[in-house]
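I hope you will forgive my troubling you with a question about protein structure. The record follows directly beneath this note:
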Amino acid sequence: RPWTPSAGRPAAHPNARFTAPAAQCPVIAKEWDDPAGVPIDAILFGGRRASVVPLVSEALSWRHGTFLGSIMASEKTAAAAGQIGDLRRDPMAMLPFCGYHMGDYFRHWIEMGEKGGETMPKIFYVNWFRKSAEGKFLWPGYAENSRVLKWIFERCDGTAEAIETPIGKLPADGALDLDGLKVEPSAMAELLKVDREGWKAELPSIKEHFETFGAKLPQGLAAELTALEQRLG
């Protein structure tokens, strides 16, 4: 439609974006469209969170990773109705797109893990959007996210160190490659902090979220929620 600044409406939706064919990417792997498929070593979940969720964590197990995916939450942007900044739970980023009951979808994930056993990919939870008390992003993001991916690749190869915490496995001291990165040690400490009280405060919201799936919520996810509560103390 014709548009002028005086038309009284925006030129595009605030969440507008564009796409391009993957084949145009100059560094795409030659196997990207192999009919035989491509082995998957890791699955990454991530929400837009200003607090609580650390920069990166590795799930304690496939079922725990499924649990993390099932409770994914982001602060609302212009893409969703409601007050910007409100927390919106969007399991596996699939809630608006799943063609059947999400409880059945969760059960499918758990059954895949039971079938695949030790061959299943590792699951990680990332959050590029952690902010300081002053509202500034703590992590530079963009190309620097490759540093987190490097740790993830190394975890898959068994060469990177991690520490086990109540919410998952986090990079051990010095395990993230920060060479040449200008991020204050205090910011890194905040990015990788396990906010026990913050996670405890999330528990009622997670329980309320799970109640929406009724009898279709797999018992395994309810057990993971109980286990998280116990680990948090």
The mean pLDDT is 92. The two ends are 58 Å apart (CA to CA).
